[in-house]
Amino acid sequence: MRIFLLFLTSIVVAAMVLGCQARQAASPVEETLSMAVAAFHQAGSVEELLAGHIPPGSETASAESLRSLDAYLGSQLSSRGRAHMDVSLTTPCEEQTAQAMSEEPGSALEYWVKVGQCVSADYVLVPQVVYWKERQGSAVGSVEPAGVAIDFYVVDVKGFGLVTRYHYEETQVALSDNLLTIDAFVSRGGQWVMAEELAKEAITKALDQFGL
Predict the structure, then answer these.
(1) What is the structure's pLDDT at 25?
(2) For the chain: N or C, fewer Cβ within 10 A?
(3) How far is 175 from 9, CA to CA, in rounded Å?
(4) Each residue of 177-199: pLDDT tens digit?
(5) E strands of the chain, at which residues?
(6) Residue 70's closest CA among 27, 37, 94, 35?
(7) In sequence order, what are the beta bridge partners of 168?
């Protein structure tokens, strides 16, 4: 038992070191340039994707969960001292752009560039849900675990291009099934979490990866 505990401790320490290294990533967005944050949305078709694909079997994330993630992303950026234009500014531009492009369709990249132009931003941070599965069961006994797949993009408005992408995909598994998930197991309090909690983990990891 003592050897097993030492093994688990070594894994936790290694995970913490890797986490600290991830926080040292250089930001693709200079502090002097403006960044708008798009509202969380779930892709309904491949035409809405900037990259990747939509996995089969996804459920529809609730509007309440998506708005909660908007608030969490905004609070995380603010707590890190990153100035940004929040969804209260970008949402009207998203709606206006969608209306305009319904008459003259274009690519997903063109859509987000136009949103950025509308809000007068240099960059747009786009969070896009491509898979969502809610937990079935309780926090202590899940029949079916939660799972999410979310893409985060940084779009260069003036350069009309995609600067970077972070893809997060996670379906919770029991510690007994994979000891390499010990860090996630500890951070989740040893419980089965909801999809929204996994999505919040995705936000933290994406911002770390982007250096934001």
Answers:
(1) 56
(2) N
(3) 14
(4) 544 455 666 666 667 789 999 99
(5) 35-37, 41-42, 123-133, 136-137, 142-144, 147-156, 161-171
(6) 37
(7) 150
Ramachandran bin of 190, using left for φ above 0, alpha for ψ from -120 to 50, beta for the remaining angles: left
User: Which of 125, 123, 160 lies closest to 30 in space, CA to CA?
Assistant: 123
Q: Which CATH class is domain 2-210?
A: alpha beta
Angle between helix axes 87-103 and 108-119 (nearest 10 degrees) is 130
Comparing CA positions, the residue from 184, 155, 145 lying closest to residue 15 is 184
Identify whether the C-beta of residue 140 lies closer than 8 Å to the C-beta of residue 192.
yes
Whole-number Å distance between alpha carbons of 98 and 162:
19
Inter-residue contact 125 to 36 (CB < 8 Å): yes
Classify strands 123-133 and 136-137 as parallel, antiparallel or unpaired. Answer: unpaired
- Give strand pairing partners of 153: 126, 165
Q: How far apart are CA 97 and CA 119, in angstroms?
A: 11
Q: Where are the domains of the chain?
A: 2-210
Which one is predicted more confidently, 159 or 15? 159
Average pLDDT, the chain: 84
